[in-house]
Amino acid sequence: MQAALVAFLLFFLPLVVIPIGISPFETPKVVLAEITISILLFIKFFKLRKKDFKHFLTYPQLLFIGILFILSLDTQLLFKPAGAFFGNVFRLQGQFLFWYLLLFAILSRSIKLDKIPAILYYLSFICLTLATLILGVNENNRAFGTLGEPNALAATILFLFPFTYFKSRMVVKTGVFLISLIIILLSGSRAGLIGFLLEMLFISFTQFVKLSVIKSSLICILLIFFSLFLPFFSYQGWFEIRTEVWQTAFKAGLESPLIGHGFGSIQAVIHQTAVSLNNNVQYQVVDSAHNFLLDFWIQGGLVGVVSVSLLIYLAFQHFIQHHKLLETTALLGLIVAMLFNPVSVVNLLAFWWLIGQGFDNQHRIS
Length: 366
Fold this sequence. Notes:
The protein is an all-alpha fold. The chain has one domain. The protein has 15 helices and no strands. The chain has helices at residues 2-12, 26-47, 50-56, 60-79, 95-108, 118-135, 150-165, 170-187, 190-207, 213-227, 242-254, 266-277, 292-321, 325-340, 345-357. Helix 11 crosses helix 13 (292-321). The chain is globular and about 55 Å long.
């Protein structure tokens, strides 16, 4: 039951489109995610044993998740920004959803998907592909699929691709590779293309060149770092200058560098900073820094950035030590997508699920 609920969140929630709220794409996904995680919590609560609880408290990841939770409490107790609890009406990524994402990482850590039939991964992948072709393109001639946003579609493919690739024979692998590449190209997501190329590079290093997982991971992480300089050499139009958004976000974080401005406060803080800097960002509705680390910088300051970075490090450490190629590939791809664009709730669920899978029994606090 628990594995089925997690599989729904990761592989079938992306397909949900219901005409409710401001967005028929994002609003129902957020609501269903919160309901499903609540059901998971209910099931876990009645199965919890005292020794399991004591065992759980020994994980180092719990410390950093706890720090992020305490930081998020400051949103209402200290900063009290308007609209921060539920967040922007278009994406609903405020304090409330953040609590659910942290909870999902904790609840899903011990839920394995090994017994989930591989056919479900293919079914999700096929349905998303067909929906993308059927729904067509937006006004910018970019495919958006059931995610409603091209970059979110590309990020979703980056997560689904490893599940279908690693569980397929070579002929099917080739088909999955080509379809994934086509969808990302149709989405027009440059970050998605970079993430996909890095995923393929990691796969090539580990499976064909026979480099060690740790060397392959370090090379890919280094390439991710260098990719962050690409926007500085690419003009994207007056309303799409990512470097200006990044600079504004960094300056906004400097106004409260230790604990940030509170979770769910990005839109108001970026606007205020853009007005003070008198740059073009002040004329846009920006509810994300287009970089998840800058989002944490604004909302949780240095404490927030360090905490989420250490959670990512621990996840990579676990995946590398246990030779988990699928999870490592997915995390590399998602990080690229999240470093350049706002993402859907389904991408955030995938990210925090991977963080939860990084809880390592062999590296508990003694």
